[in-house]
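Example 3.
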Amino acid sequence: MKLNPPLPSTGATASTMGTEPRNVVLSRSPRQLAWARFTRDKKTVVAAVIVGIYVLLAIAAPILVALGVLNPYDNNQDLIANDSLPIGAFGGISWDHPFGVEPGLGRDTLSRIWFGLTFSFAIAIIGSFFAMLLGVVFGIIAGLTGGWVDYLIGRLIDLTLAFPQTLMLLALSSTVLGILTTVFFIPEGDLARAAYVILVLAVFGWVGVARVIRGQVLSIREREYIDAAKLIGASPMRRWFREVLPNLWAPILVQGTLILPAYISTEAALAYLNVSVQQPTPTLGNVLQDAVRYPVADFTYFIIPVLVLVILVVAFNLLGDGLRDALDPKGSR
Amino acid sequence: MLAFIIRRILVGFAMIVVMIFVVFALFFANGNPAINQCGKYCTPEKLDEITGLLGYDKSIPEQFTAFSAGLVVGRDFPVNDEYRAALIENGYENRIIHCAAPCLGYSQSDQKTVNQLLVKAAGPTLSLAIVSFLIWIFFGVLIGVIAAINKGRWLDRVVVGSTLVVYALPVFVIGTFFLQYVAIKWQLYPYPRFEPLKEPADILPWLTGILLPALTLALFFMAAYVRYTRAFVLESMSEDYIRTARSKGLPERTVLFKHGLRSALTPLVTLAGLDFASLLAGAIITESVFNYQGMGALAVKANNNHDLPVLIGLVIVGAAAVIVMNIIVDILYAYIDPRVRVTK
Amino acid sequence: MKKRPIARLGAIALAGVVITSLAACGASTDGTSGGSGNAGGTVTYLGVAGQWEGTDPATVYYGNEIAAFRRLVYRGLTALPITDDPNPVPVADLATDTGTSDDGGLTWTFTIKDDVKWEDGSPITGEDFVYGLSRSFDETLVNGTGVGVTYLSSYAPSVVEAGYTGPFTSTDAAKAVFDEHFFADGQTVTYKFDNPWGDFPSAAAGLFTTDPYQASFDDGSTLWEINSNGPYMMEEDEFDAAQGATFVRNPEYDAATDSTDLRQALPDQFNFELVADSDVLFQRLVADAGTDKEAFSDANIPATFYSQVESGDIADRTLKSTSPYTRFLFINSLTVTDPDVRRALAVALNKDGMIQAYGGDNYGEPSTSIVSKAVSGFEENPAFADDNSAGDPEAAKELLGGATPEITVAYAISPTNEKLIPVIQQSFEAAGFIVTPLGIAPDAVPGYYGQMAAKDKNGQKVDVFLGGWAADWPAMSTVVVPILRSNPADAESGVGFNYGFYSNPEVDDLIEQGLAATDPAEGAKLFAQADAVAGADGAYIPVVQQNNYFLYGSNIDGFLPDVASSFYPDFGSIFIKSSK
């Protein structure tokens, strides 16, 4: 099984299905057009708002923890019954603990999920940044140079895709963690584990990005204005940076929006395999890993993190879909 | 065409060789499987002794050479010549294990060749891969086509919306739910347990045992394939030749099934081939939720035991499956779509 | 991910320690031991996948595995009877008697019964016993368990020192030394030890180290094979560590050579079924549907099930008793040298909170010693008896006198331990300690106990670490000696289970006196005294006295966790109720 790949497109939606009147292009800039398409799609706007709220929550969490509003680390064992489950119905939901408390220790579930969001976001964002960086660089090189370089990069992509990824990251975790701590002096513990997850995301994630970017570069290369720039004697460097790069921001943005939720899910899967950041530091993944131990005994505790994750991933993907449709009306995959 | 096939196979072979070396270097750079044999009162001296006994004291290139030779002509275990000589001298030749080519190694902690372990684990993994593949291809394409036909209507919206939710649910959550609620708490379905398929009469128990885990695994792919199919169908239905077919006055149904679907589903062949191949290394999470003793479970166990030979064998078999499938798909594609040969 | 962080490698009870009392154990059972049960049917044993490490007698090591196989397939020289008596005495099994020794335990002689057979029908000979013992010396064969070598090297050190490494690879010189010590003549087997082993018959009953092995069966891939000489035999060629196996009647077994005190062998078949985790296992036992009515498990009911099993009919299918297991915190005496600091740690610890994180009341109660209440001669350790089990940070602060020592707490990463650590951390921090948790990953090399056993803790700073222990034998010596006796001065890793490297001449002296004591009650007193001295010195911090809490199907009877089975349910007495 592979790391969660980004959600595939469902193809062009009604507004962009090849029926777009061509003459509109003449009267408005592509950016205005994209914005118009974006705001016209109600569910994308709703998704954007939800994503915005999530991002704000993730940013606010460390501050609220510092202020003592959120207490992800404090035990409340007085809220735990003799059988180690929370006292009271629905996983001990109360005014003080709106999502209930964790079995055994009585830590506040809301605080753990909320603060976990911050760590999950941080890991996913840094991971996708490196995956995008690698993917964009390799994609541009492959697309621009062509020939044997392109061929080699293509085989490298094939090789990366061939490795059983879950198995590799499981089997290499202790080795790579050792290297991270001894060679790169990353302190043992959460930081090294987070770095390992980020590394895994980047090493296996760049491939998809590189393919998309290579395709984009190839198609841009064929366009008339590049030929025009060549004709008027623009240097190759200038052509790359002035003419090619600006045309890549749309696919980069779309890819980024789609990769991020995939990486948040991947972190959860890694946590399930004990590879991610360990408790007591919360991540969505390790909160979920604990929650799936109580599907029957404490259903509330089980279902809440699942819902938080599902809403997050769905909203991000809706937003990514909307962006793709808005920025790339031909619906290229 | 033949030249294309030959070149493709040669490239694939080269990739497998590179891959084996990478795996070998990665795993042996920092690990010593002998530690698992050293016991609870392990001392450095004792560890050295066992390391030598098992042949892990040799350099990586030496071990790689021995391993590669084993792939071609087979090997005898234990690999230490003196150890083997002592066994023969003491009259215990029957303790020397011959591992026939292509020999992937020997697991000291399981007292079995890696080949034996992989063959044993292949049953559950193959069953899981095949059944879930059939589920996700059949329902994925079916639902995808239905969604495309009903594009923009409520049915389409519901389908597209559900794929988003299913995609967002982690496999271990779906699996836990199926196991703990559907099978055990509500008793809606018999407790899933792998029953090997040895004769035709085993089909029913085999299928009963495998349906829940296969469905767990398939749901994620199904969500993706519904979306792929919908996209491909919509794309192909907007091609010029479809417009031509429409303008000829052919009924929409005929246009779809005669012309649209064929070209829409061609790219799915590539995707499906590779996704299927990627399952052959084992579905680690699904297998561990359901206690299915396939390649994935073998990997988890080998990882906890530092059983490097088994891990290496698993990676090699898994990666080789994908590389081989890549070649098959490429060749298949070249047959289906003659344009490919021109561009490659 | 091993779910058994407890090492069971206790010393076998030393000469002449007789068990005098055993609190709370086996008292509340509805089992029978008179052989009056109903024969026939298939009993399902439910276990957790991946915990078995081998079925070759040389590798079997955990209490529940020894318990199961001793009754079903592997008979030994001697065995302990099925009984709720807390003081069972070994009886003859494959041998005609429990062994004779004229020189105080240096030389032991056994005669093997004439009509006992392997599952292929060939007779069990004295040679088979010598061969079985010789295999216990092979490190690669025993798969890292090494329990046999550990014991043999203390009673027959000259064999180990001669470089004897089992039958397959030893030099002729080493073999000659082995042959001088252990040899057979027809059905007579002789064991000559360098040091007296007074309790050898008990060791033979409690471990598989001296069990017979058929040389012709030994082909290099025996790890998961079973060559039975008991009432059942494995139907499959190999035991599946993930799925289990089926045990059916062994036609070559003759009940006349055996005693119903050891094996009633009532069911016709035992199905060993291993499942993904204990949650699934207990879901099935709670549901009690179909063949699960005839199922039982030796796993403890997880905390998440307590609310479901405590009321109604289902409560009748549970059995709770005091376990021989205790959990405690080791203190690394090499880094935490100040006894006041060690006492402060003990005083500060919130044991109640830890027990709640473990699973609450049913899991266990706060303990006051490393010794379990199930052990004969148990005495509360006065050093810990008055400690507040919820922790007393103020008293700890007083002991520290304003200091704020930095303490690293090591643990094996597991879902349970990750919930314990916050409790430990917060109670230490409340007393002013600066605490750093150190989690050891399940796939770490060496493993958790390997790292903790090392004197330098694998190069890490470790001051306090989680541990647990069960007596191999319900005697004080099997706990106090391995954990508290000083390691040799040059030991790079802890001997026995003294991973804290605790060393106190006064304690050593009391231990030596205890070992030398002729009156068992007096011996137990001396061990208790040693424990008290070590406790006052802050050698360790007791945490919890565990319970056994079993659940079994509604058609199961004869469910008896007894001494012979290390307080796991005895496979020899279990049967299916006749009335449906």
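The CA atoms of residues 212 and 300 of chain A lie 41 Å apart. Residues 40-327 of chain A form a domain with the MetI-like fold fold (CATH 1.10.3720.10).
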